[in-house]
Amino acid sequence: MRPLPSAAGIAAGVLALSVTAVAPAAAHDLRTAEGRAEARARVAGYQPAWLHADRSTGAAVPCVNGRAGDYPCKNVDLLSHLPVSALGGGTEALSMWYWIDSSTSREYAVVTRDNGVGFVDVTDPVNPKYLGNLPSHGGTTSGWRDVRVHRDTAYVGADGINTHGLQVFDLKRLRGVTSPQTFAADARYDRIGNIHTIGVDPAANVLHAVGSNTCSGGNHMIDIADPLKPKNLGCYSGDGYVHENIPEKYAGPDTEHTGKHITFNYAVKNFTIVDVTDPRSPKPIGKGTYPGASFIHQGDRTPDWRYVVQNDELISTSSGSPSFVWDISDLDNPRMVRTDRISGMRATRHNQYNLGNRMYQGAYNAGLRIHDSSKLPGGYGEVGFFDVHPADDSSGFHGAWTAIPWFGKGSVVAVSSIEGGLFLLRPTGAARSSAAR
Taking the mean position of all CA atoms in its chain, how far away is CA 37? Predict the structure, then answer.
């Protein structure tokens, strides 16, 4: 475990950006033997039929008797499917985010790929429309790309490419597009090279790029108040390499911290909470870990700010791949209160986001998994699933990368599948969120 630094160390770490290359987590770093082995495992596991799968649009496929067409399911219908080949090219779909145009109410999936970003109008989720491609900066390719949207602007980073920087794209350019386009970025922030993941605090107009070649792999904070002119704000390097983070304005039960801008950092061996109200002088608040922590990867909180559900990307056992539940009612002292497994399901758990009383998780080979988050810490039962990778549910890095539950006023979930592309799904019955309208 890497301890939090001294106050002097923190002060020194935030005065200037460190441009020294650091060693990001090996499981996701093409510069390490482990990262290259992971990439080779992905390629070896490809199924050509998946890479060239036909699209499924025009009619929903209900989940009946545990199947929606070729896909195992429970309480989740298939609305449509676009393969990677229909998303702008490349061989892999990766991370994804969403944009809901406040002027037109149209909805868009922003899907990253190994060689760029595809924009898809999903306003009609049964008939999604591909609008165009933003190529990777310099024509580069990476197995790890991330995107976040703030207001009407998308911000794109890529790992393993030290010259990529942060691409900036004005999403309003998608309005009125009638045939697929190849777009150029509107701007590029070049005070950073490779980026593993991105978080945005919308209330602060601050973007956090983590897992990069700056800030010892920690939080590189960027002012995006002027969306096409990002400006450096500072670093938080007290956690070392951070794999994922979710920054936001705190509005939970710990009144000591009400109104502060904080970030939840998932830092491989530790889950940490940091006060970033002043990006030039961030302060650690709380920190936790657990025996056997292997790769504390990502998580999300419940709406009441009392619990965070977190995954560990490298733990999978015969008794199931676990989710870990933290009690965060006291930010200074996050406590592990539950470990939950689906018996016999060894698939690696990946990115997850909560909406209302449901947690939506991309679980690689096991596809979309939906959990009841309303009974925490007493229970965390699975209430639905849709397996975008029906070949197997073993551990490994195929299938569902992420699940985005905010389309269709909370009634439509978009899943990016590494080999399969974009799936638009509708949870039903017990899998439907209380926040869906």
Answer: 22
